[in-house]
Amino acid sequence: MILPVSKFNSNINFTSDKANKLPYDKDTLLKNNFSTRARIGLDKLTNAITIYPSKGFKGDKNANFYEFLTMGNVPYLIGSLMMMSVFNSKNKVFAPFAASKAGALGRKMALGVLFYGLMKGISKSFVTNPVKWLTGVDTEVPYAKVIYELPDDIYDTDIMSIEYHKAFESKDFPRWDLFYKSEAKGENRNEYFDKIAKRLGYGENLKDSDQEMKPVIKQIAVKTDLAKTISSYLWAATGVCLAFQKPWDDYFKSATLKFWKTDKFAHSLKVLVRSAKDSAKSLWNGSGSSKYAGKIMVGAAAASTVLGIINAIPHKKPAGTKNVIDDKRKYVVS
Amino acid sequence: MRTNLIQSYMNNQPVNDRNLDIEYVLSNRTFIKPLPPKGHLVNNGLLNMPVNSAKRLAYDAKSVKNAVQGKANDHELGKVNDVGMKAGGLAIALYLMTRKQTPLTKAMEFIGLGSFFGAMALWPKVALQLPAKLIHGVNIRKKYEDSYGREKLFFQDPQYIPWDLVNEKKLHKIGDRLNIPTDIPNRKEFIQEKMKKIAVQNNTMWMMTAGFATPVFSALICNALEKPLNNYLGKQSDKKANRLLSSINDRYEDFIDKKGLENFKALLNSNKNKEITPEFVKQAEEILLKDINPLTAKSFSINIREMLGLSDKKYIVDDFVIDNIIKSVEDISEHKVVLNKDTLKALLKSNEFSEEEIRKLAHQIGKEVKQHTNDDKVMYKLVNSENSVINILKSKQNTVLSENTISKLMRFSNKLFDFKAKNAILDKYIYLKSAAAPETVAANAWNEVTSAFPKIFNISEDEIKAARHDSKIASKILRDKLGTVTSNEIDYERVFKSLLTKIVKLEDQIKNLDLPADIEGSYEMNVNKVFGEFGEFLQSNGMDESVEALVGKNGQAEGSLKNIQLSYVKDRLLGIRSSMYRMLNTMDLFRRISKQENILALHEKMPKEIKEEVAKLARDMSIEGSTADFMTKFYALRNPNPNMELGNIRVEAGRVIYEYLNGKKVDLPNDKTFFKEVMKLMFENDIHPDTKKLLSKSQIEEGFKNYRKDFLNEIGDSYYFVKQYHLISGNRSKATSYTKFLRMGMSPEKMFHKSMQEAFNQKSWLKTFGSIGAGLFALTVLTQFFFGKMKNPERINHD
Known about the structure:
The complex is a heterodimer of chains A (334) and B (799). Chain A is built from ten helices and three strands, in the order βαααααββααααα. In chain A, helix 5 runs parallel beside helix 10, helix 7 packs antiparallel against helix 10 and helix 9 crosses helix 10. A three-stranded antiparallel sheet of chain A has the order 1-2-3. The relative contact order of chain A is 0.11. Chain A has 334 residues and is mainly alpha-helical. Chain B is mostly helical and 799 residues long. Among the domains of chain B are: 190 residues, no CATH class; 79 residues, no CATH class; 269 residues, no CATH class. The radius of gyration of chain B is 43 Å and the shape is flat. Chain B starts with a helix and ends in a 16-residue tail after the last helix. The mean pLDDT of chain B is 88. Chains A and B meet through helix 2, helix 3, helix 4, helix 7 and helix 10 of A and helix 3, helix 4, helix 7 and helix 32 of B.
């Protein structure tokens, strides 16, 4: 038998006057729905362009890797706008013919940048959602992490902040602790793991469903991550290819964002839908030397998604693990 | 693999040792120790680059493999992301490449991709790492490898910096570089804090600037690489073209349309000993005459039909045909029984009919039917309906596809496909060399000349800006430049020489194209050989129409396919050379007028006002005259009653000072000498001695001389009914209008205007994004001086 590790007192005596203002006082698993994702996205974006750069430029001792990674969204956004500008901003000074030619290409490039971002964002759910439906494992489930920072001086009590992570963000150290239910509240401690075990056909009422399911869930998370990453870049590439189709020229001719001119705006939307449809057809059918290129591109993106999902779903139970612990012996774990 | 010490300890425990003294073991716990750390700093020198790159590539591959198996760790999944990003980028470049037509545009897709990733990787190195190293002596992008072989940035996570990997002595040395006093308490920790601060600030700067820098520098890299890449690809396609032509006899088999040949064989086999139907002929011709122009194909078709024995066709009318006619007549006339077999047979005198006889027979049948039906329209229906009597009568031919015909057709088709393959090589050669398309050898050489205009003529940015708007403004700027340049000997020599050097280089690139047929390996020799061989084969098989279409008849090759093949090149070269020579001739004309030398056309007896008119028109026409201007013998507004005062025109610093050009003017179509004098001034009067001297050292001297002469003959003597006596020599030119058009070439005004537009677009874009790039770089480097500011710790005095 294993001797239990003695419980240590986790009530760290930090004090913070911010504690009451923050929405969470401890690490909390959040619901993975649109409103949470939007809130987290907005929070991260705001911080990425305000607090984090300000801390970073000051070389704040509390600046951390999470902040650095969150600021990683800034080059994406600025870069996209910059790229659109590189392709288009000078067109107006060119001679009319050159401007029209450069404009047609430049607008498609800009659309390409937009579609790259859109497709990259959307396509992740092409993998994560099916995996969630098929296995019950939501690899994207977010949680709020409460951070205690080093105080600037002895009077500094503003030392708490919230970071938003995903429970399976680190595959080396998934936040399993957040999935356990409280027995003190009369809940089933392993409820989450029981559910997954049942869903994946490992049976019900397992003795240690958490111990059995953790490696399986981790494997699903790793494989899903792979499929999500690779396929999202291929879908993004497909987005760019779609943007380069000729029918978009029709849309650009009538495109307007002046929604108060209802007639023109409605017409523009109609042409947008038509152009999108024709462009999709044009991408698929291709012409000349790119006759099969579109099909290959879409096919590769779709195949990476489907194969990725198939790979991510566990197909067989792991062979029964050899019990390395002899029940009759006494072990000490410190 | 590392040894699992716990497992090894357990395995090595004596099994029967149940009386283990746990207290002893616990007090002697040193048997399980953490393994010694294997982490170390990575040396990223240039020398280690290949090894490091190979290691990283292997690590990436391993990461993907582990991820597929679900075993990857966080670091490996990070690498999978990099792999995915590159794969996505590559997919975009590959797709866009398939949509581009020319080697340069195809290659630029990959340059674009490479430059993007290049800019992304280089920006933090060049704009942050290097300045930080130079200013602070801190390598903010130092890498280390942890005990598990994972390579990471040393300062990646400010909350976890593996300081234990850094040698303390080295750390203090960095401290010295950071000007940290040696006598402060906790100097080591302070150095670390300062280094961390510099790194955090730089990492933030990186994130805030990368979005601006990557697209801009990627575009700038592409911009810088486009020209060298084009030069390289141009040379490659030139070599490729030369290789193709020189090995035409070995390479042509690769160009044979093998599928077409197979299909033709299959068609013949499936129709062997069967009747030759119109459908068969159509299919056979479709395969054989594919890629042959319609006119030549028509001639080939005549000979193919002869070969099939279709030229004097006979149709068979047997019982089967008769039954069909009866059925058709019944259908059309809507009467049950109109004709019976016997009636119809009575109309037939034999069972074989010619085309003419078929028509008569149909007419007779029609009459017969009309008698029985009293329907006036029946005749029309019988002839015109889909199932008409004529079609039925012609449905059976007496020709069958015999083995003899098949072998004749096979011989013909083999030779034809060989010819088409060789012709494809000739076409490809000429396309790569001189087609009116981007990136051909000729187009690249042309661009080399015109893109040098701003530099050669010393055009200022403001002039470029103005000239690109309108060809008339460009024309004025060019005229002024030429005036200034040609008035000064040094400038004239410099500008003419630079232009000449570029044009000679162009000539070098294109001169091989019109080497005469007696030079081994020349294009013309190859064309003669390919067309000659096939022509002989056709001749020996009595295919006269095809021979005529292919190579002409009795030495008259004009209009033949061979002539088109040859004249395409000659025409292209004529157009290119005329344009270039016209520029040189214009410069020479300006020089002669500026220096008032070799201007015989403006002879002593010519009144000064007319001299002004001639000089002005000659200068204008040289620069902007179009084919229409020359063909209509110029529409020149002149004074019908000129002042007869004699004297020379006045030229100051290259500008002609016109004294008589005001007042009402009209065109004078009856003054035939005016046209002559203008033309002679431009093309007949000797070139300026300076021009002669400069040209005498170049290989285009003869060509330029011939250009002036031919221009006079072909354009000066062209006929225009309104001004029919405006001829230089009095003999009418025989040149075709196309030759005249090519002889005219592109006007210097147009050439200059285009060059200015390109220069403007290039400069304007470069100015904006070059400035953004330079500004961003300067700002990023300057901020380094504000990074790492920290107050040195002071010793606390406890007294």
